[in-house]
From TrEMBL:
Comp. bias (Polar residues): 27-38
GO molecular function terms attached to this record: NAD binding; oxidoreductase activity, acting on NAD(P)H; quinone binding
Lineage: Eukaryota, Metazoa, Ecdysozoa, Arthropoda, Hexapoda
The protein's name in its UniProt record: Complex I-49kD
Biased composition (Low complexity): 39-54
NCBIfam families named in the record: NuoD, PRK06075.1
């Protein structure tokens, strides 16, 4: 009869949809489902009809209009049948409704707030729910617009386990003046803020039992506080700001620090509007008519989806759209307290005063305004005119959106009833009120928006000093234990959001349940002393054994590669010193080689020797620091001081050669910046001669030390195959037994003229990498002595004056040399277009630069390949499942990471 088809089959307002229609040779099954807005529970009904065994011809299409008419006709009967089947006596305190009337709003409790010193009933001015939805704050005092000294109080009521409030407030907070508005903190349920008739802001912590619970108080406005709201800070994520408004025309944003109990003014906004809004200035109109004046703010609301946008209702029925961005500074603004005009545009003013402005919680661009002229206007932010206007004979005093029902509004007014409006038509829906005959004026309506509260409550406030608590629909469902015991295993249990209560135990036996055990998560860093920088390791532990390890980086990211695209080639050189700041000259080496390859220039022989010499001195410096930190992390301390003593001697040589201990900027395109001073080679030779003896002492103390071997042997093992797959290089690769060194395989500078060996490990653990670093220090000492003995005379940089600056004595005698010097350091070197990949054997591994030139003096792209980033990416492999947390320190020390090299 039907062919397979899915989609909506009924009108816009219906909640019924065809879920699946299919046919077989023996049966036909149709499923209908209904789903209320804002819920995830669907009610379904399946009907099977037995037919003949002969095949039924399948119709190609369905007349959806006829099917829609048919479903709309049978909808009330199907709805009643579903209610009868679902709302059975298996659910406690639930009465089956067999009538066709819509659900009623039921009055469940009435509260009268009495004075603490007498039996008189207090007048209620305003109220608010806390973040958890179980505490109600009621402000009791005289409410008027003239200056007063009447005392005020805030009564706090808390729901009990039966969803009832006590007749006497759980706590009472007192003030010296009348309270105009109260608001709970959105994330801290115990913090409540109040605005007073005198313009003060008071904040309480209702958890404190001592004194009056006041944590701070400040004079915020010159007039009474008309409205107050907690909003999200655009500068700091998830940090609420307190926004307050007053008849003095100011909207203030306050920073509240709950830890120190300090409230501080962040920004002040003044709303100004012409005397005749929305009217163009005529040529003959006097100046004072079009002049802007400060308007008192009656109410406001911030958009929940666009935090910088808010709507203000000002005196005179003005509706003004404002923005925190692009504001105009006003007179009196200072650096500490900036004052701005946030007005973005004006809407058509109401003929009466503004009562309420509220953004829709469901539609991010929609908001409503309600005035004493009896109009409720629905606006879209991008439109100047309202998209819907609801005109009422009796104006509403308060109105609110219904969460998860974007087409429904609820309001209250002088008639003393709650009116519910359908947004599409603007007509009031007919609803029934149980247990309610009072006809007092309703002045405020407040919805409990907490989805985890026991029931969704509607609060309305009377001028006759009473508070009525109503519940929409029925109470929460829950299984009746007596019914379950009587009809054992014959009840379909509620699922999803209705499964509030656990199933009863059928007998004395308790079936074993599979319990999900969660591992403990420990953050190693980013402030840990053994993290070697700002490293954060999220470790999942089972006892002391690591199950999973996730490295988090980026805390030191500076955007170096992007910054280099805005500097000349020479100006980019200091950026490399700040990558691996332990091995500054080795960082500069691949960058200079890449520029020289694109320029097709040759470095003089003495310049090459000096570069190679200082690279090996840098290698010794790096390995000594890596060994010292590794030794200290594991627990030894004496070799740490020995290595740092020797390292400081080499740092003095660094300073003699280039004038700096860390950021050298010594290597330059075409050579080096200056020649080695006289006598420095002899100092280097003396230091290297004594360094070998110090290395022997370290080996005597550590290499065969039982504790050192236990902490490093068979820890952080890297197999040779895995080292290649993980793109390891340097000591991390050679420690696994692979003899790969760019100084041997792809020699650069004068490494092909030197005699040295490449040490390798056997097991690939921390102990092998320790031995490889010691051996590499000995090989570097061997090469440094060869370079000192073979140091040739000559120039230290190329003679191409387009690449190198002129000498100082030439600048003093030649104007052309002075102009050349100025052009060299201002505009830079123009490098021919092309791309080159240049790599060197860095102390930590292979460091490379991929340089792309477009023919200008600024690099088009410079990609840096640093070894620390590659090695740190394998932390989960190195300290993976089965290792102890204490081994993470040993493995991290043997990797030798520097976070200037990782984050860049």
């Amino acid at each position: 009869m039907f062919s397979t088809k899915e989609g909506e089959c009924v009108g816009f307002d219906s909640i019924w949809k065809v879920k699946r229609v299919y046919t077989t040779s023996s049966a036909q099954t149709t499923e209908f489902s209904t789903q209320e807005n804002g819920t995830n529970t669907a009610l379904s009904s399946t009907t099977e009809t037995q037919t003949d065994t002969e095949s039924v011809p399948i119709v190609s299409d369905v007349d959806m209009n006829k099917l829609s008419d048919w479903l709309q006709k049978i909808y009330p009967r199907v709805s009643r049948e579903l209610n009868d089947s679902i709302n059975s006596t298996a659910f406690k305190n639930y009465k089956v409704s067999r009538s066709t009337e819509p659900p009623a709003v039921k009055l469940i409790q009435t509260i009268k707030v009495q004075d603490s010193n007498s039996d008189n009933v207090c007048r209620v001015s305003t109220l608010s729910w806390n973040a958890t939805g179980n505490t109600l704050a009621i402000a009791c005092n005289q409410f008027h617009k003239t200056w007063c000294y009447h005392p005020g109080s805030v009564c706090l009521y808390t729901f009990d386990r039966y969803d009832k409030m006590p007749d006497v407030p759980n706590k009472r907070l007192t003030t010296e003046t009348c309270i105009t508005v109260v608001r709970f903190h959105p994330r801290l349920p115990s913090i409540i803020a109040a605005g007073t008739q005198s313009g003060d802001i008071i904040l309480w912590n209702i958890q404190h039992d001592d004194g009056e619970n006041i944590i701070c108080k400040i004079n915020a406005h010159e007039e009474l506080v008309t409205h107050m709201a907690w909003i999200n800070d655009m500068d700091i994520a998830k940090t609420p700001l307190l926004a307050t408004s007053s008849l003095d025309g100011c909207l203030n944003l306050w920073n509240f620090d709950p830890a120190d109990a300090i409230i501080k003014l962040k920004h002040k906004y003044q709303v100004k509007s012409p005397l005749l809004p929305k009217v163009a200035k005529l040529p003959t109109e006097p100046e004072e008519v079009s002049k802007k004046i400060i308007r008192g703010i009656v109410t406001f609301d911030f958009s929940p989806y666009v935090p910088e946008m808010f709507i203000v209702g000002a005196e005179g029925g003005l509706v003004i759209q404002c923005s925190l961005l692009g504001t105009v500074p006003l007179k009196g603004s200072t650096a500490d307290v900036p004052i701005s005009d946030p007005v973005y545009k004006y809407y058509n003013a109401h003929e009466g005063e503004i009562r309420k402005i509220s953004f829709s919680p469901n539609r991010k661009e929609m908001f409503l305004t309600c005035g004493t002229d009896g109009e409720v206007r629905i606006y879209i932010l991008d439109q100047d005119d309202p998209c819907k206007v609801i005109s009422l004979e009796n104006p509403l005093l308060s109105i609110s959106w219904i969460p998860f029902c974007e087409k429904i509004l609820v309001g209250c007014g002088n008639r003393g009833v709650i009116e519910i409006f359908k947004l599409l038509t603007g007509e009031a829906l007919d609803i029934a009120f149980k247990d309610y005959v009072d006809t007092a004026v309703l002045t405020q309506i407040e919805l409990n928006l907490n989805m985890f509260a026991a029931t969704r409550l509607v609060i309305r406030k009377f001028d006759k000093f009473t508070i009525n608590i109503l519940v929409r629909g029925v109470k929460r469902w829950g299984c009746d234990a007596d019914f379950v015991l009587e009809y054992d295993k014959q009840v379909m249990y509620p699922v999803g959001k209705f499964a509030r209560y656990p199933r009863p135990i059928w007998n004395a036996k308790i079936e074993p349940k599979e319990v999900q055990v969660y591992n403990m998560v420990v953050n190693f860093g980013p402030a840990h002393p053994a993290a070697h920088g700002v490293l954060r390791l999220v470790t999942h532990l089972q006892g002391e054994v690591v199950q999973r390890l996730i490295p988090h980086i980026g805390f030191l990211h500076r955007g170096t590669e992007k910054l280099m695209e805005y500097k000349t080639y020479l100006q980019n050189l200091p950026f490399f010193d700040r990558l691996d700041y332990v091995s500054a000259m080795c960082n500069e080496h691949p960058y200079c080689l890449a520029i020289e390859t694109l320029l097709n220039i040759e470095v003089p022989r003495r310049g090459k020797y000096i570069r190679t010499l200082m690279s090996e001195v840098t290698r010794v410096l790096n390995h000594m620091l890596a060994l010292a930190c590794h030794i200290l992390d594991v627990g030894a301390i004496t070799p740490f001081f020995w290595l740092f003593e020797e390292r400081d001697k080499l740092m003095e040589i660094y300073e003699k050669v280039c004038g700096a201990r860390m950021h050298a900027a010594y290597f330059r395109p075409g050579g080096v910046s200056q020649d080695i001073p006289i006598g420095t080679l002899a100092d280097i030779y003396d230091s290297m001669s004594k360094l070998g003896e110090r290395i022997d002492e370290i080996e005597d103390v550590l290499t065969n030390n039982r504790l050192w071997v236990i902490r490093t042997k068979d820890i952080g093992i890297v197999k040779a195959e895995d080292a290649l797959n993980l793109s390891f290089s340097g000591v991390m690769l050679r420690g696994s037994g692979i003899k790969w060194d760019l100084r041997k395989t792809q020699p650069y500078e004068v490494y092909d003229e030197l005699e040295f060996d490449v040490p390798i490990g056997v097991n690939g653990d921390c102990y092998d990498r320790y031995l490889v670093r010691l051996a590499e220090i000995r090989q570097s000492i061997r090469m440094i002595i060869q370079l000192i003995n073979q140091m040739p005379p000559g120039d230290i940089k190329t003679d191409d004056h387009k690449v190198c600056p002129p000498k100082k004595h030439e600048m003093k005698t030649s104007m052309e040399a002075l102009i050349h010097h100025f052009k060299y350091y201002s505009t830079g070197i123009e490098v021919p277009p092309g791309a080159v990949y240049s790599a060197i054997e860095h102390p930590k591994g292979e460091m490379a630069v991929y340089l792309v030139s477009d023919g200008s003096s600024i690099p088009y792209r410079c990609k840096i390949r640093t070894p620390s980033y590659i090695h740190l990416s394998a932390m989960n492999y190195l300290i993976g499942k089965g290792n102890y947390l204490a081994d993470a320190v040993a493995v991290l020390g043997t990797i030798d990471v520097v976070f200037g090299d990782v984050d860049r």
